[in-house]
Amino acid sequence: MMKVTMSNLTVLINKNLYQYIQSSPLDTDLEESMMYSLKAGGKRIRPVLLLLTLDMLNEDYNKGLQSALALEMIHTYSLIHDDLPAMDNDDYRRGKLTNHKVFGEWKAILAGDALLTKAFELISNDTIIEDVIKVKVIQRLAKASGHIGMVGGQTLDMQSENQSVTLDTLETIHKTKTGALLNFSVMSAVDIAQADSVTADLLNTFSHHLGLMFQIKDDLLDVYGDEQKLGKAVGSDETNHKSTYVSLLGKNGTEKKLKHHKDLALGCLKNLPNQYDPSKLVDIVDLFYSRDH
């Protein structure tokens, strides 16, 4: 079996991700639009986190590969839709023109729709995990992606433009819009490995702190980040009149909040049962804390 490192798992995900978007008998270039965004880059952190969590739970990470690929497709669809003029109206993503700038708005919308539905096809066709676990994973992904998860968080985020929101509301936005898929990364691995309830509770709490870390760091990078490293313009939150951790807490307060959730996330990992080695998840926490793009 391949050595379990973040870089090796990223290669594995990329190797398998693209083969599922095959040309269709229909006379369209929809698949080209789907592939454009799938190949736009990124660290594949969500699927990597899923596979690393499985490995940490002493389970074969290959059991989570289909679920990891499905997760990346849903994440990619959400980025295509987020960039649309009706949403964040971004021209660049990871240094490349956004999907709608290349293929037009209607095709970008349909490419996102196709990636969303392809994700559930992938998991339903998984032949490695048992059917009862497969259903549990599908249910978890549907909930994480839907109206009380990522889509609900995006709705609340859009509704909150041009007005001040409380820190509690901002946290709710980020727990759903950003955190829900990161929670799925960890907890679908718990489902597949059939971990005990103590481990499940600790990892569930860990994933929530990780999700908040990710968004708090995003807020910092949107103001203080390097545009070349980010691959897009900074200051989009201010342009769209969005409340952020930086606008509510200032730079120092936001950095303290980031450190607070880092410490709580690491505390969850430290309290895991002794049969688990969480060192690679500790590396993920450090990555979230120190990333510059």
Task: Write a structural description.
One of its GO terms (molecular function) is (2E,6E)-farnesyl diphosphate synthase activity. It catalyses: isopentenyl diphosphate + (2E)-geranyl diphosphate = (2E,6E)-farnesyl diphosphate + diphosphate. It comes from Staphylococcus saccharolyticus. This protein has helices spanning 6-17, 30-38, 45-56, 65-82, 99-103, 105-124, 131-145, 150-159, 167-177, 179-193, 197-224, 227-230, 236-239, 245-270, 279-290; strands at residues 92-93, 96-97. It has 15 helices and two strands. Helix 1 crosses helix 3 (45-56) and helix 8 (150-159) packs antiparallel against helix 9. Strand 1 (92-93) and strand 2 form a beta hairpin. The model has no long low-confidence stretch (mean pLDDT 93). Helix content is 69%, strand content 1%. A two-stranded antiparallel sheet has the order 1-2. The protein has a single domain (28-290), classed as Farnesyl Diphosphate Synthase, CATH 1.10.600.10. The protein is globular. With 293 residues, it is mainly α.
Observed structural traits:
globular, Farnesyl Diphosphate Synthase, 2 strands, two-stranded antiparallel ribbon, 293 residues, mainly alpha
The CATH architecture can be named as: Orthogonal Bundle
CA distance, first residue to last residue: 31 Å
Which segments are poorly predicted (pLDDT under 50) over 5 or more consecutive residues?
none
Calculate Rg over CA atoms. Answer: 18 Å
Please provide the count of β strands: 2
- Could you spell the SSE succession in H and E letters? HHHHEEHHHHHHHHHHH
Helix content: 55-70%
The CATH class turns out to be: Mainly Alpha
Enzyme class: transferase
Catalytic activity: isopentenyl diphosphate + (2E)-geranyl diphosphate = (2E,6E)-farnesyl diphosphate + diphosphate
GO cellular component, one term: cytoplasm
Pfam family, one: polyprenyl_synt
